[in-house]
Amino acid sequence: xxxxxxxxxxxxxxxxxxxxxxxxxxxxxxxxxxxxxxxxxxxxxxxxxxxxxxxxxxxxxxxxxxxxxxxxxxxxxxxxxxxxxxxxxxxxxxxxxxxxxxxxxxxxxxxxxxxxxxxxxxxxxxxxxxxxxxxxxxxxxxxxxxxxxxxxxxxxxxxxxxxxxxxxxxxxxxxxxxxxxxxxxxxxxxxxxxxxxxxxxxxxxxxxxxxxxxxxxxxxxxxxxxxxxxxxxxxxxxxxxxxxxxxxxxxxxxxxxxxxxxxxxxxxxxxxxxxxxxxxxxxxxxxxxxxxxxxxxxxxxxxxxxxxxxxxxxxxxxxxxxxxxxxxxxxxxxxxxxxxxxxxxxxxxxxxxxxxxxxx
Amino acid sequence: xxxxxxxxxxxxxxxxxxxxxxxxxxxxxxxxxxxxxxxxxxxxxxxxxxxxxxxxxxxxxxxxxxxxxxxxxxxxxxxxxxxxxxxxxxxxxxxxxxxxxxxxxxxxxxxxxxxxxxxxxxxxxxxxxxxxxxxxxxxxxxxxxxxxxxxxxxxxxxxxxxxxxxxxxxxxxxxxxxxxxxxxxxxxxxxxxxxxxxxxxxxxxxxxxxxxxxxxxxxxxxxxxxxxxxxxxxxxxxxxxxxxxxxxxxxxxxxxxxxxxxxxxxxxxxxxxxxxxxxxxxxxxxxxxxxxxxxxxxxxxxxxxxxxxxxxxxxxxxxxxxxxxxxxxxxxxxxxxxxxxxxxxxxxxxxxxxxxxxxx
Amino acid sequence: xxxxxxxxxxxxxxxxxxxxxxxxxxxxxxxxxxxxxxxxxxxxxxxxxxxxxxxxxxxxxxxxxxxxxxxxxxxxxxxxxxxxxxxxxxxxxxxxxxxxxxxxxxxxxxxxxxxxxxxxxxxxxxxxxxxxxxxxxxxxxxxxxxxxxxxxxxxxxxxxxxxxxxxxxxxxxxxxxxxxxxxxxxxxxxxxxxxxxxxxxxxxxxxxxxxxxxxxxxxxxxxxxxxxxxxxxxxxxxxxxxxxxxxxxxxxxxxxxxxxxxxxxxxxxxxxxxxxxxxxxxxxxxxxxxxxxxxxxxxxxxxxxxxxxxxxxxxxxxxxxxxxxxxxxxxxxxxxxxxxxxxxxxxxxxxxxxxxxxxx
Amino acid sequence: xxxxxxxxxxxxxxxxxxxxxxxxxxxxxxxxxxxxxxxxxxxxxxxxxxxxxxxxxxxxxxxxxxxxxxxxxxxxxxxxxxxxxxxxxxxxxxxxxxxxxxxxxxxxxxxxxxxxxxxxxxxxxxxxxxxxxxxxxxxxxxxxxxxxxxxxxxxxxxxxxxxxxxxxxxxxxxxxxxxxxxxxxxxxxxxxxxxxxxxxxxxxxxxxxxxxxxxxxxxxxxxxxxxxxxxxxxxxxxxxxxxxxxxxxxxxxxxxxxxxxxxxxxxxxxxxxxxxxxxxxxxxxxxxxxxxxxxxxxxxxxxxxxxxxxxxxxxxxxxxxxxxxxxxxxxxxxxxxxxxxxxxxxxxxxxxxxxxxxxx
Lengths: 360, 360, 360, 360
Description:
Chain A has 11 helices and 14 strands. Chain A has helices at residues 27-36, 57-60, 94-100, 120-127, 134-139, 145-154, 163-178, 207-210, 224-236, 265-275, 330-345; strands at residues 17-22, 42-48, 72-73, 85-88, 107-110, 141-142, 157-159, 186-192, 215-216, 243-248, 255-262, 282-284, 302-308, 319-326.
């Protein structure tokens, strides 16, 4: 990838850094707190949740009650002076207003969709309204760590990727950059766990509506397609799009992308293996093996597998199928965010993220 | 489809018919018993399960204990004289031996894979050994009711389809027959519940191995591909194959196939709507809507949905994505088997199969 | 129990009866529609859902879309003239107002909690406000069919039991009536599926909050305790209460009650076996066997099991543990409601309810 | 509890210690490896699995493939010279033979049931055969850390508790020792996740047999009752038993015990609060609050809750209900084992166990 993994681990400042989590009452906020609670260099200075301000974090998330966390406050109550970095886990659209109001000297890792798309017109098309903070959007670095490491190191504002987007980008970006697949023939079928939809009380997310069944969602066009197009095109040096259908799978965590491409499986496998050889969080399985979301659960890992498709093209060329698995709350959101924060702060990139997956 | 649905309902013999279920200790066998227990024309004369012979059905399946069923016997103990039709729910390979030994005047609905493939060489390739009952294989009618109704009406031996195969064939056969999609560009990504793997004590089917995660299986080539190729090619009048990946989804029942094709969504939708307009068990949802396996659970229904793909071909032609949902134990196995038995016996085709899906 | 099961099946009016389901947009409403769709004597004349009036039932519940159901209307739009019986599946508290406004000649099976408690003071205590329809409350018959059959046959208004209550009453009422257990030493620990909480978009019912874990709820006192006390006391001829804790289990359907009592297991088992010998929907398993909710899923059945407790009382007397399993949407709600409607109409009691449980 | 938590953390030897995991192909073995992979003082020197010897750990547990673990070997192949401590995660009965053959200078933390019961006759009664290593049994210390800390510190062989036993002992031991409940009136109803049954391919543990339902198991008498009786009696100074029913809950991890006792809730709550005030892994929730297994998932924590029972004794005395939640693979098995290993080695007791629970 773009740079070595542990660039300044040795030279890092030994002093601890203070962070805030904005939107700590959502699942990605809670996951950040879980990770931060054992992080060697970060301390939690503030947790905000406007509608639940005044409550203890342990009332909102009992699994974190024993951690001695600061009480939830509103964003306005936060003392930004004492804070080095902010994780912003707020809903889309409100995020751009909140971040615009934050001091310019605060480093920010944003987990919303607000700063992922570089082209304001594309943003307006997919999100239905003009962007309200164009300077910030221009400044933001796309948070797919392995591909933007130098930029993230210098960034003030890093925009976390979509969780589905990350799952599809890892298997495809190296292939498009290396020109080993046909950029006009990419199909992504994806299954995603429920936690990606957040902790919002919506009928279609009830246990009874989700358990014991599977169905596609966002079939008219999922917003992460815009991210695919942006990053695919950057990697390929021309416009690239894809067919993309996500499905809601009856599980808490985990995304599996199954990617159908035109290209030789062996070349695909070699390209991915080489691309991620030095990456601490990515594994490319042996050719012919496939990953499971169970094997990355709770970890910051992404596992990739490649198999030759029995079907060949009409002209006899090969096709390949690639599988990509990650935990949407970790490598797809909060783990990625912490990885980026580590890079921004000059810490070892794996700090606080070394935990092995939890199975079963 | 090939014929009207209720051809001889009026002329049917009012006498009840006696059936046996061979392999009643598996899930498809139990599902047959569930359906037969309220069937208006069939009585259960015998239940066999060689390894559990002597046991009460209620010991093997407590949910059926109240039905006053005959005790489990071996196949050898079965009195075939008194039986009109046999449902054969035995494992692959052993089935062909068992059926070869049955009297020629017995009607048989087989749920195994043994008689699905018309070409002995194809069978040998996919199942790894020569077929042991070639005459029976030649005689067997493929059990996709809506497409083989006249043949099934006259058949002695009907071979139930693979459950994954049925899920993929319903959306594609009318399109290939009507030539509204490119037969060289078919991709099927499928999610299947666990009951399709049967009641066998295997490590990878344990709750702890399946729950809370999703993964592909049979990635080197699932045997149902042979069924796809056989039936696709028959419908298209030329050889047709597809890219196909099934995934194991953490749910008891239900298969969802997501099918990516080259063709205009509107034409695809119209073709399917027309093809299944008179079919009692198939519903084509409005264009742009997608089905869920939850909505067919426990029923003999198959729901289809069509959406236009945002991606177009390089030359600007349209692409479509089709979704197909059914219950693997019902329309994918035992419900289909009973539907075929109804046809073979001249009963109304929906007899015993009118139950609405169970949700949640 | 109190009467024979099929009292007037032979003399029943052959004409079909027309029913309405008020509150058809909830799970119990949908389950009623599922059952009514194959009922031999009832036709669905109207479906109401005030907030979703104007929609097709298939938009609200896609699994029922194929049934050709009437469009959802408001209660005010309902033509009560043409209706013989109303199933009222509305929320608590609003129900009493709605039913008060219905014509007096309409038979009503209510599934809410509004008319379960005979004592207005007890109602006010548990529900926090005075009852608004005391005459109706006085008139209502408690809908535990097996114990109130003669009253239900003559009733105009039948009040469906709580689903947890039914699960605990079946194992205990015969024992209290027969005086084979100590009425002062009853402990009920219960696990309930999520559908009992209805289709309301509440955070604690989200898939992510429920899956992969278990926890007690309503620990300060569940309202069904009032039903236990009312019916236990009636059976015992003196005031009887119990310790009761329900738990939310990660499953759609099913309640299992585990009941700890002081009494000899053999006598307990014999008493239950005899009590339910003629009941079509209750099974008492052999002594030492235990039921599972899986084995009653989707059916109107209740399975009971008895085992001797290893622990004896200090004075050496025996203790027993009784298990009771039913499907909360069926025998605990909609199945029970239909059973009662059958009794009220003089139909065979099992009409429309003969379906075997669905497993897996 | 019996001692301070971090007795010799300061004086600990800074050198790393080498451990082996015997039976690394089971769930508790894998969980140990997960924990050890980030432990500050332990290195994994050997992993054994007789039937899978020669395989990579990553073939057996893909979620651990990236850890660079030693290849699986047989126990005979293990070089005990280089090892300081052995975790023994082998099946019951075979364990005693294996441990008998290990060198006497090896510290051992056993996770099987073989050394939990101090009385050989009790062992023989519950396990159906005489114990084969009586000297070891006499030497073994019961591994409920908080109650045996001084003994564990000096122990060579520590016997891990049953996972159900631990869940019931935490809420009850302090109460029996403090005499605030009636020792003759203890009822434990427990729900346990599936991973407690291990990774054995048994029909009743299949996904399809477990999902979407709940049922009791081992109703004739679960072996953990013997542990309850042993430890209850020790705490109370007289023989104490209990009514005990475990249920299999459709979830991977987590045990919830609901304990019904005679005693005043306030005194119960105060006693537990005081008993565990200094314990790093135990939390007593505020009076009237209840824990969920979700809130301890993946962590070494045990959460306790107390509520007053509405039912009082006939003489008017109070009753209380206590809830206890832990993760069976962690505090109920591998986490406990590592905690004990830390104590045995003089490490800080929480080393490698500080990870917060994972939710959702």
